[in-house]
Amino acid sequence: MTKTVTKHKASPEASLPKCATGIQGLDEITGGGLPKGRTALVCGGPGCGKTLMSIEFLVRGAMLHNEPGVFLAFEETAEELAQNVRSLGFDLDELVEKKKLAVDYIYIERSEIEETGEYDLEGLFIRLGHAIDSIGAKRVVLDTLETLFSGLSNVAILRSELRRLFRWLKEKGVTSIITAERGEGSLTRHGMEEYVSDCVLLLDHRVEGQITTRRLRVVKYRGSAHATNEFPFLIDEGGLSVLPITSLQLQHKASIKRVSSGVPALDAMLGGQGFFRGSSVMVSGTAGVGKTSLACHAADACCQRGERCLYFAFEESEAQQLRNMRSIGLDLEPWVKKGLLRFQVARPTVNGLEMHLGSIHKQVEAFQPHLVIVDPITSFLSSGTDAEATSMMVRLVDFLKSRQITAFLTSLNHAGSNVEQTNLMISSLIDTWLHLRDIELNGERNRGLYILKSRGMAHSNQIREFLLTEKGVQLTEVYLGPEGVLTGSSRLAQEATATATAVQRGMEIERKRGELARRQQGMEAQIAVLQWQFQTDKEEMEQDIANEQAYLEKLNQSRHEMARSRKADSNGLQASSKLQAPPKKGHK
Amino acid sequence: MTTQTKSDDLGVHAVKPKLWQLRLYVAGQSPKSVTAFANLKRLCEEHLAGEFEIEVIDLVENPRLAKEDQIVAIPTLVRHLPHPIRKIIGDLSDTERTLVGLQLRASNK
């Protein structure tokens, strides 16, 4: 198969033109649709959706690609068929009226028929040819051709006629689907795969643990690359949709934009800005720790930004959830009314895992949310084995990441179990993991929150006490005492003690400050006194000095005068007068 | 629309409805169709002389008519009267089975 693939890879369009089915997802996994101008075989057990798939092929062809189609029904009348697909939103009568569709019912009742001698199926050819020509059909469905085997006994004629039929269809250039019932140990009961060798799709309908999952597999696609996995598919009011989610790869972008968690203190713990947009956030914890409340905060914050939030609730009904959140001061109802918040409520057992994934996929496609909350993911464990649930979660997270949708998952842990073990083994997928835990101390049960990990951002390593108040979730500091973290009343007691001590300390400081001030004042007063004394002394002394100087000057003056009067030698006079001056102080 | 064989040698009289109303669906002048018509003519003349009416419908010319009697195989002989409707497919070469099919003979084989 791989050989064929590589061989044709050079120019896939040139070598094999395809006919887009228009069925959601099918064209993706077949690389563009069914082989154009050829016949494809759709086989599977009863009730697996063969007829539906083929009729959708025609309806989509007529509506989306303007390619009219012919439906040759061997099992249902045109009226029955129209009735059956009306629930899927297909109006066959309208298409027939517009000449976009022709339905012919072929009925073969063996008991009415006697076979004598040679015959052929020219009648079938003529009817089909007429139907094709009357509306210029490009697509043909034969459902289920194998009915011929039960109506006609000459197998040799049948086989050669079938071979002729497929050749003829090819010559007509119509893209056709034939359906066939699955046989024991072979794809089809009557070996139809012998005739149709271009493309074979197998539909399956499996029940595991009372839960049914529909799957589709491309068994064979000659000359084209195709996905080989089994893909779950859904049949609902929008028709059939194949979910190519198993083929997602790790190629998603990484946003640097941040979004608030809705709890300011939590944002602060996450580097001050909250989660990364498009990241996967998980909140784990035992029952009743406040996972849902935290999720609702995130939803509220999302809606406040004007973004859409899709909330998958598997435990509570929408009304219950809205009521409960009101008790913590969170009114989500306006967001629901505004169309920003949508709840999808279902019991996890309603579907198989693949179907859950499928419906999430579909609803995300339809609603285009910015935030998806799954509350809780652990409920999926009840609809599958651990391994299946893990694989589903991987695909869910990958899918949301590829769309740059922030995923907020809650995970219910059982009391006493190991945190790392109980989270569906998806811890490696999670970017930001918050863990809520009960802290039991002094006959109280309190909640603590810490960040187990948060990729790509600085985050707090602190355990915070998690409080559900009337104003929503609040995170407070916790005390680390000798017995561990202190929460609840222990924390309050500790807080009171600390406050008292602080007050005491504060008073002490005040007292010391006062004393210091007083001392300073005293010191300053002393300095002032000293300064004043000094000033007085200084003034006194300066007065003395001035007096002395004045006396000296006077003395000198009188000496000069005396010398002048005695006519003494001026030099000797000067020297003697200077030497003798101080002792003569008293002679004034 | 329909091609009624009105040749006298077939014993067909359009005046009053016959007890046996047969319709033979063919596709053009294929050997099987020609054989079937010849076989039918012979058989009717032998067993239902004067009591039958044969309508030959060529689906190549009137493909729309195939729907009415749910024709898949060619040639197909449809007995419209007497009731109930019976269908015999093939070139009618097996006379015995054709008679059984037309309920002209009990299937005692």
Can you walk me through this structure?
The complex is a heterodimer of chains A (588) and B (109). Chain A is of the alpha/beta class and 588 residues long. Chain A is built from 17 helices and 25 strands. Chain A has a nine-stranded mixed β-sheet with strand order 5-4-7-8-3-9-10-11-12, sandwiched between helices. The longest helix of chain A has 79 residues, at 488-566. Chain A starts with a helix and ends in an 8-residue tail after the last helix. Chain B has two helices and five strands. Chain B has helices spanning 31-47, 95-101; strands at residues 3-4, 20-26, 52-58, 76-81, 86-89. A five-stranded mixed β-sheet of chain B has the order 1-3-2-4-5, with helices on one face. The longest helix of chain B is centred in the middle third of the chain and has 17 residues, at 31-47. Mean pLDDT of chain B is 78; it is low at 1-14. Chains A and B meet through strand 6 and helix 7 of A and helix 1, strand 5 and helix 2 of B.
Topology:
The complex is a heterodimer of chains A (588) and B (109).
Chain A: H1 2-9, H2 12-15, E1 18-19, H3 26-29, E2 34-35, E3 39-44, H4 50-64, E4 69-73, H5 78-86, H6 92-97, E5 101-105, E6 113-115, H7 122-135, E7 139-143, H8 147-151, H9 155-172, E8 175-181, E9 199-208, E10 211-221, E11 230-236, E12 239-242, E13 258-259, H10 264-269, E14 275-276, E15 280-285, H11 291-304, E16 309-313, H12 318-326, H13 333-338, E17 341-345, H14 353-367, E18 371-375, H15 386-402, E19 406-412, E20 432-441, E21 444-454, E22 464-469, E23 472-477, E24 479-481, E25 484-486, H16 488-566, H17 570-580
Parallel strand pairs in A: 3-8, 3-9, 4-5, 4-7, 7-8, 15-19, 15-20, 16-17, 16-18, 18-19
Antiparallel strand pairs in A: 1-2, 9-10, 10-11, 11-12, 13-14, 20-21, 21-22, 22-23, 24-25
Helix pairs in contact in A: 14-15, 16-17
Chain B: E1 3-4, E2 20-26, H1 31-47, E3 52-58, E4 76-81, E5 86-89, H2 95-101
Parallel strand pairs in B: 2-3
Antiparallel strand pairs in B: 1-3, 2-4, 4-5
